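Tutorial handout. Part one gives the primary structure; part two gives the three-dimensional structure as tokens.
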Amino acid sequence: MFHSDRGSQYTSGRFSRLLNKYKITASMSSVGACLDNAVVELFFGSLKNEWLLNVVHLTPKMMKMNVEEYIRYYNHERLHTTLGDLTPINYENLQSQVSSWT
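Part two.
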């Protein structure tokens, strides 16, 4: 899934065909609802400021590898204050345990 705002680059036919080619579902925020996109914007801000600005990317392949590495770090190692200083994976696991107790 690829979530974005309704910018012209994301609503273009060319971009839609690219997503379809790779079997990626488009998801867009509601018109005028900037908070719909807040989680994704936060992730991309973190990716850019914590990771990509500190890494030299010589090839598209290396860039892809670095982004994949950051996603693993973000989900499995990076503590998130909004999640009570847990990683997203640990938070999801905890929520699953809590919901199975009820």
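Part three, for discussion. Residues 41-102 form one domain. The longest strand covers residues 2-4.
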